[in-house]
Design goal:
mainly alpha; 0% strand; 4 helices; elongated; 85 residues; 61% helix
Length: 85
Amino acid sequence: MTETTQINVRLPEKLLSSATRYAENHGFSNVQELIKNTLRQKLFEEPLVTAEELSLIKKLAEVSEKRGLFKTENDLFRKLRRTDG
């Protein structure tokens, strides 16, 4: 059996309130489960986008914005989701 250690975390009331709402809306039994799940994701799961890929995406967004290829963030996301073919 895995040994566990209890820790105490102090959160500002607004952060705790937001975390509680998030946990309720996303199927977590409580904020503790949300925190454990979030730590597992950060520590053990492969990121969806690498740091290098994120850097390239930021550069693409900057160039696209300078060239006026989109007017709003929503326009950009619509263009990124669109597939040809």
